[in-house]
Amino acid sequence: MEFSLIERIRERTAQGREDVRIGIGDDAAVLILPTGQEQVVAIDTMVEGVHFPPGTSSADIGWKALAVNLSDLAAMGASPAWALLALTMPHADVDFVDGFAEGFAELARPYRLALVGGDTTRGALTVSVAVHGFAPPGKTLTRAAARVGDAILVTGTLGDAAAGLYCLQHAVEASSHRDYLVGRLNRPAPRVAAGMALRDIAHACIDVSDGLLADLGHICIASGVGAEIEAGLLPHSSAMLSLFGDTTARDFALSGGDDYELCFTVPAAHVAEAMADLARMGCGATRIGRVVEGQGVQVRDAQGQWLDTSRRGWEHFSR
Ligand code: ADP
Ligand code: MG
Question: In which band, very low, low, confident or very high, does the pLDDT at 1 lie, cut at 50, 70 and 90?
Fold first, then answer.
């Protein structure tokens, strides 16, 4: 694809990092690895109509394509450094590329993350971003480290992105609450600092991309444990509670994807410390349940009744 498009991306994402010996412009990037660190890498692809609705602005697509990847690094407790971008689009659209690069750069800038290369091709709108980060040896957070007796916590609030998608799809009347929820869908804020802070205190960790039930379920399988969640403890945003009833808010929080909050487990004795560590960086966290023997995620409602999370319709809100 045209050199000028790549040049526009390069200009907008420029980030003077000394560990980038050769960035965009040669056949491959040459990067200087920090000594004494492990490298943590992830890649995620977003396809129009599957991972973001048609009509999403180019800047939001650029932001989100990076955000979902930074969220994967956050879930491992890694600090981000470099990214690669494979951009496929139907035709060489300068306005799209400019908007995309600006949205991408807006999120990359505070992390000093450098875009060091990529590929640009023609085809259905598809964006793949690969990220590289670092963590001290053996310190990464995994899905497999939950232990029976751990408390289960989540950062922020849950279900907002799914509620935002609902607002778009059902033409919910304009309001600041609607804008907040749609913003949570289009501009998720990856919990990078929180993930790094949790390295020394959390056991297992995952980012909530497919919905709490699904993602906590991954922790359970990887760790060989079960989980009990109290639905009454699930954190909801005020925007969610203003626009939706309690039951709908609960279902969004349990099954809605795309929030990119962290779900993690902590020894019960360290819950207060973990919450204080996160609060210091402006990240709220809520205890929502505990790790138990057995398998699968069980949810108790506010009256103490177990919910049937396998019934049809629970997948309704997730992708
Ligand atoms: P090649 O044919 O050698 O792969 P390209 O024309 O695909 O060369 O890429 C030229 C340079 O631009 C390379 O350094 C590549 O990493 C970079 N590049 C291409 N597309 C992108 C993109 N979408 N984002 C960032 N860098 C890109
Ligand atoms: Mg190429």
Answer: low
Mean pLDDT score across all residues of the chain:
95
Where do the H-state alpha helices sit in 24-175? 58-76, 94-108, 160-169
Select from 191, 142, 162 the least CA-distant residue to 38.
142
Q: Please tell me the predicted confidence (pLDDT) of residue 14.
A: 86
- For 86-126, the pLDDT digits (tens) are 999 999 999 999 999 999 999 999 999 999 999 999 999 99
Ligand 1 midpoint to CA 106 (Å): 21
Percent of the chain whose predicted confidence (pLDDT) is above 70: 97
Distance 136 CA to ligand 1 centre (A): 31
pLDDT tens profile 33-57: 999 999 999 999 999 999 998 999 9
Question: Relative to the CA of 119, which ligand 1 atom is closest?
Answer: 20
Helical residues (DSSP H) of 147-270, grouped into ranges: 160-169, 176-186, 192-198, 212-223, 238-243, 246-255
H-type alpha helices, the chain: 3-13, 58-76, 94-108, 160-169, 176-186, 192-198, 212-223, 238-243, 246-255, 271-280
Closest Cα to atom 4 of ligand 1: 27
Distance between CA 219 and CA 70 in Å, rounded? 19
Burial of residue 32, with CB atoms counted within 10 A of its CB: 0-12 exposed, 13-18 middle, 19 or more buried:
exposed
CA-to-CA separations, 18 to 23, 24, 293, in angstroms, rounded: 11, 14, 48
| Tokens at 199, concatenated | 């390295």
CA–CA separation, 127 vs 88, rounded Å? 6
CA distances (Å), origin 256, targets 97, 158, 309:
30, 8, 13
CB 202 within 8 A of CB 264: yes
